[in-house]
Amino acid sequence: MTNLLAIDTSTEACSVALSVNGKTEEIFAVIPRLHSQKVLPAVEQLLTDAGINRHDIDAIAFGRGPGAFTGIRIATAITQGLAFALDRPVIPVSSLAALAQQAVRKHNATSVLAAIDARMGEVYWGQFTVDSLSGCVQLQGNEQISKPEDVLIPADESSACYGIGNGWQYAEMADKNVTTVTKDTFPHAQDIITLAHPLFLSGQIVNAEMAIPVYLRNNVADRKH
Protein backbone atom coordinates (compact mmCIF):
# COMPACT_ATOMS: atom_id res chain seq x y z
CA MET A 1 0.00 0.00 0.00
CA THR A 2 1.03 3.61 -0.56
CA ASN A 3 1.80 6.15 2.16
CA LEU A 4 1.21 9.72 0.96
CA LEU A 5 1.67 13.03 2.75
CA ALA A 6 -0.15 16.15 1.53
CA ILE A 7 0.21 19.82 2.43
CA ASP A 8 -1.91 22.82 1.47
CA THR A 9 -1.41 26.41 2.63
CA SER A 10 -2.72 28.19 -0.46
CA THR A 11 -5.43 30.08 1.46
CA GLU A 12 -6.08 31.20 5.04
CA ALA A 13 -6.35 27.53 5.96
CA CYS A 14 -3.45 25.26 6.86
CA SER A 15 -4.11 21.63 6.01
CA VAL A 16 -1.93 18.53 6.31
CA ALA A 17 -3.08 14.98 5.58
CA LEU A 18 -1.45 11.56 5.74
CA SER A 19 -2.69 8.44 4.00
CA VAL A 20 -1.31 5.17 5.36
CA ASN A 21 -2.42 1.92 3.78
CA GLY A 22 -5.53 3.57 2.39
CA LYS A 23 -6.58 5.32 5.62
CA THR A 24 -6.36 9.12 5.58
CA GLU A 25 -6.18 11.45 8.57
CA GLU A 26 -6.05 15.23 8.39
CA ILE A 27 -5.20 18.22 10.56
CA PHE A 28 -6.99 21.36 9.35
CA ALA A 29 -7.20 24.85 10.80
CA VAL A 30 -7.95 28.34 9.53
CA ILE A 31 -4.89 30.19 10.85
CA PRO A 32 -3.87 33.14 8.64
CA ARG A 33 -0.17 34.05 8.85
CA LEU A 34 0.68 31.03 11.02
CA HIS A 35 1.13 28.42 8.31
CA SER A 36 4.92 28.21 8.52
CA GLN A 37 4.74 27.57 12.26
CA LYS A 38 2.10 24.85 12.11
CA VAL A 39 2.85 22.64 9.09
CA LEU A 40 5.79 20.60 10.38
CA PRO A 41 4.29 20.01 13.85
CA ALA A 42 1.14 18.79 12.10
CA VAL A 43 3.22 16.43 9.94
CA GLU A 44 4.93 15.00 13.01
CA GLN A 45 1.60 14.62 14.84
CA LEU A 46 0.08 12.66 11.97
CA LEU A 47 3.15 10.44 11.67
CA THR A 48 3.11 9.75 15.40
CA ASP A 49 -0.59 8.96 15.39
CA ALA A 50 -0.11 6.59 12.45
CA GLY A 51 2.87 4.87 14.08
CA ILE A 52 5.27 5.51 11.20
CA ASN A 53 8.21 7.84 10.57
CA ARG A 54 9.14 10.19 7.74
CA HIS A 55 11.07 7.54 5.85
CA ASP A 56 7.88 5.48 5.49
CA ILE A 57 6.39 8.20 3.29
CA ASP A 58 6.37 7.21 -0.40
CA ALA A 59 5.64 10.64 -1.89
CA ILE A 60 4.65 14.17 -0.89
CA ALA A 61 1.78 16.03 -2.55
CA PHE A 62 1.13 19.73 -2.15
CA GLY A 63 -1.32 22.41 -3.18
CA ARG A 64 0.66 24.16 -5.91
CA GLY A 65 -1.83 27.01 -6.25
CA PRO A 66 -3.37 29.17 -7.37
CA GLY A 67 -3.94 31.02 -4.14
CA ALA A 68 -2.17 33.35 -1.75
CA PHE A 69 1.38 34.02 -2.94
CA THR A 70 3.03 33.60 0.48
CA GLY A 71 1.02 30.51 1.33
CA ILE A 72 1.88 28.75 -1.91
CA ARG A 73 5.56 29.50 -1.36
CA ILE A 74 5.39 28.03 2.15
CA ALA A 75 3.83 24.77 0.96
CA THR A 76 6.30 24.52 -1.92
CA ALA A 77 9.34 25.18 0.26
CA ILE A 78 8.33 22.74 2.99
CA THR A 79 7.46 20.07 0.44
CA GLN A 80 10.78 20.52 -1.33
CA GLY A 81 12.69 20.41 1.94
CA LEU A 82 11.06 17.17 3.03
CA ALA A 83 11.38 15.62 -0.42
CA PHE A 84 15.08 16.46 -0.67
CA ALA A 85 15.76 15.18 2.85
CA LEU A 86 13.88 11.91 2.31
CA ASP A 87 14.75 11.48 -1.39
CA ARG A 88 11.08 11.17 -2.25
CA PRO A 89 9.08 12.32 -5.30
CA VAL A 90 6.63 15.19 -5.28
CA ILE A 91 3.10 15.43 -6.68
CA PRO A 92 1.89 19.00 -7.40
CA VAL A 93 -1.91 19.26 -7.22
CA SER A 94 -4.10 22.22 -8.11
CA SER A 95 -5.63 23.94 -5.11
CA LEU A 96 -8.72 24.63 -7.22
CA ALA A 97 -8.96 20.93 -8.05
CA ALA A 98 -8.75 20.14 -4.33
CA LEU A 99 -11.67 22.49 -3.72
CA ALA A 100 -13.65 20.84 -6.50
CA GLN A 101 -12.85 17.38 -5.09
CA GLN A 102 -14.22 18.55 -1.75
CA ALA A 103 -17.53 19.30 -3.46
CA VAL A 104 -17.52 15.74 -4.77
CA ARG A 105 -16.64 14.27 -1.36
CA LYS A 106 -19.14 16.29 0.66
CA HIS A 107 -21.95 16.96 -1.79
CA ASN A 108 -21.68 14.30 -4.51
CA ALA A 109 -21.22 17.04 -7.10
CA THR A 110 -20.48 15.97 -10.67
CA SER A 111 -19.81 19.42 -12.17
CA VAL A 112 -18.02 22.05 -10.09
CA LEU A 113 -16.89 25.64 -10.46
CA ALA A 114 -14.21 26.23 -7.82
CA ALA A 115 -13.29 29.84 -7.05
CA ILE A 116 -10.67 31.25 -4.67
CA ASP A 117 -10.55 34.92 -3.70
CA ALA A 118 -7.52 36.42 -5.48
CA ARG A 119 -7.92 39.82 -3.77
CA MET A 120 -7.92 43.09 -5.69
CA GLY A 121 -11.44 42.34 -6.92
CA GLU A 122 -10.45 39.15 -8.76
CA VAL A 123 -10.95 35.40 -8.39
CA TYR A 124 -8.97 32.34 -9.35
CA TRP A 125 -11.36 29.84 -10.87
CA GLY A 126 -11.70 26.62 -12.78
CA GLN A 127 -14.46 24.41 -14.13
CA PHE A 128 -14.25 20.71 -13.23
CA THR A 129 -16.19 17.54 -13.97
CA VAL A 130 -15.86 14.15 -12.33
CA ASP A 131 -14.30 11.18 -14.07
CA SER A 132 -16.76 8.34 -13.61
CA LEU A 133 -14.04 5.69 -13.32
CA SER A 134 -11.62 7.32 -10.88
CA GLY A 135 -14.05 9.58 -9.04
CA CYS A 136 -11.50 12.40 -9.39
CA VAL A 137 -12.23 15.81 -10.82
CA GLN A 138 -10.77 16.83 -14.16
CA LEU A 139 -10.20 20.39 -15.29
CA GLN A 140 -12.26 21.61 -18.24
CA GLY A 141 -10.37 24.28 -20.15
CA ASN A 142 -7.83 26.30 -18.16
CA GLU A 143 -7.53 27.67 -14.66
CA GLN A 144 -8.01 31.43 -14.84
CA ILE A 145 -7.91 34.69 -12.93
CA SER A 146 -10.52 37.30 -13.77
CA LYS A 147 -13.03 39.76 -12.42
CA PRO A 148 -15.96 37.90 -10.82
CA GLU A 149 -18.34 39.21 -13.49
CA ASP A 150 -16.14 37.66 -16.18
CA VAL A 151 -16.38 34.11 -14.79
CA LEU A 152 -18.19 32.02 -17.35
CA ILE A 153 -19.93 28.69 -16.90
CA PRO A 154 -20.58 26.65 -20.05
CA ALA A 155 -24.31 26.69 -20.82
CA ASP A 156 -24.50 22.90 -20.90
CA GLU A 157 -22.94 22.67 -17.41
CA SER A 158 -24.66 25.48 -15.53
CA SER A 159 -27.85 23.66 -14.61
CA ALA A 160 -25.94 21.01 -12.65
CA CYS A 161 -22.87 23.02 -11.58
CA TYR A 162 -21.89 23.26 -7.92
CA GLY A 163 -20.09 26.43 -6.77
CA ILE A 164 -17.45 26.16 -4.04
CA GLY A 165 -14.78 28.36 -2.50
CA ASN A 166 -14.45 31.82 -0.98
CA GLY A 167 -14.32 33.40 -4.44
CA TRP A 168 -18.10 33.04 -4.41
CA GLN A 169 -18.39 35.72 -1.73
CA TYR A 170 -18.32 38.44 -4.39
CA ALA A 171 -21.75 39.86 -5.19
CA GLU A 172 -20.97 39.65 -8.90
CA MET A 173 -20.88 35.85 -8.61
CA ALA A 174 -24.48 35.72 -7.39
CA ASP A 175 -25.97 35.76 -10.88
CA LYS A 176 -24.12 32.62 -11.97
CA ASN A 177 -26.56 29.85 -12.77
CA VAL A 178 -25.45 27.13 -10.36
CA THR A 179 -27.42 24.68 -8.27
CA THR A 180 -25.76 25.30 -4.88
CA VAL A 181 -22.89 27.37 -3.50
CA THR A 182 -20.62 26.72 -0.52
CA LYS A 183 -18.70 29.96 0.11
CA ASP A 184 -17.05 29.51 3.50
CA THR A 185 -14.63 26.73 2.73
CA PHE A 186 -11.00 26.22 1.73
CA PRO A 187 -8.94 23.44 0.09
CA HIS A 188 -8.33 20.35 2.22
CA ALA A 189 -5.20 18.22 2.09
CA GLN A 190 -7.29 15.05 2.27
CA ASP A 191 -8.72 15.92 -1.15
CA ILE A 192 -5.19 16.48 -2.44
CA ILE A 193 -4.47 12.92 -1.28
CA THR A 194 -7.45 11.67 -3.30
CA LEU A 195 -6.19 13.41 -6.42
CA ALA A 196 -2.53 12.52 -5.85
CA HIS A 197 -2.97 8.79 -5.36
CA PRO A 198 -3.81 7.87 -8.98
CA LEU A 199 -1.08 10.25 -10.17
CA PHE A 200 1.44 8.44 -8.00
CA LEU A 201 0.33 5.03 -9.23
CA SER A 202 0.60 6.15 -12.86
CA GLY A 203 4.06 7.65 -12.36
CA GLN A 204 2.97 11.29 -12.72
CA ILE A 205 5.49 12.50 -10.17
CA VAL A 206 8.37 14.99 -10.23
CA ASN A 207 11.66 15.51 -8.42
CA ALA A 208 11.74 18.03 -5.60
CA GLU A 209 13.36 20.75 -7.72
CA MET A 210 10.45 20.50 -10.17
CA ALA A 211 7.84 21.28 -7.52
CA ILE A 212 6.78 24.52 -9.20
CA PRO A 213 4.08 26.79 -7.73
CA VAL A 214 1.32 28.15 -9.96
CA TYR A 215 0.33 31.75 -9.31
CA LEU A 216 -1.69 32.70 -12.44
CA ARG A 217 -1.32 36.39 -11.62
CA ASN A 218 1.52 38.12 -13.49
CA ASN A 219 4.20 39.97 -11.54
CA VAL A 220 2.76 38.57 -8.31
CA ALA A 221 5.95 39.31 -6.38
CA ASP A 222 5.44 43.01 -6.98
CA ARG A 223 1.91 43.13 -5.66
CA LYS A 224 0.44 42.95 -2.21
CA HIS A 225 -1.30 39.60 -1.81
Distance between the termini: 40 Å
Secondary-structure-based class equals alpha/beta
What coarse outline follows from CA principal-axis ratios?
A: globular
Strand order of the largest sheet: 3-2-1-4-5
Write a compact overview of the structure shown.
The protein has helices spanning 35-50, 69-86, 95-107, 155-158, 189-201, and strands at residues 3-8, 13-20, 23-30, 59-63, 90-93, 111-119, 122-130, 137-146, 161-164, 180-182.
Write the layout of secondary structure elements.
Blueprint: E1 3-8, E2 13-20, E3 23-30, H1 35-50, E4 59-63, H2 69-86, E5 90-93, H3 95-107, E6 111-119, E7 122-130, E8 137-146, H4 155-158, E9 161-164, E10 180-182, H5 189-201
Parallel strand pairs: 1-4, 4-5, 6-9, 9-10
Antiparallel strand pairs: 1-2, 2-3, 6-7, 7-8
Structure description:
This protein has 225 residues and is of the alpha/beta class. The chain has helices at 35-50, 69-86, 95-107, 155-158, 189-201; strands spanning 3-8, 13-20, 23-30, 59-63, 90-93, 111-119, 122-130, 137-146, 161-164, 180-182. The strands form two sheets. The protein has a five-stranded mixed beta sheet, with helices on both faces. The chain has a five-stranded mixed beta sheet with strand order 8-7-6-9-10, covered by helices on one side. α2 links the parallel β4 and β5 (90-93). α1 (35-50) crosses α2 (69-86) and α3 (95-107) packs across α5 (189-201). The termini are far apart. Residues 219-225 have low confidence and may be disordered.
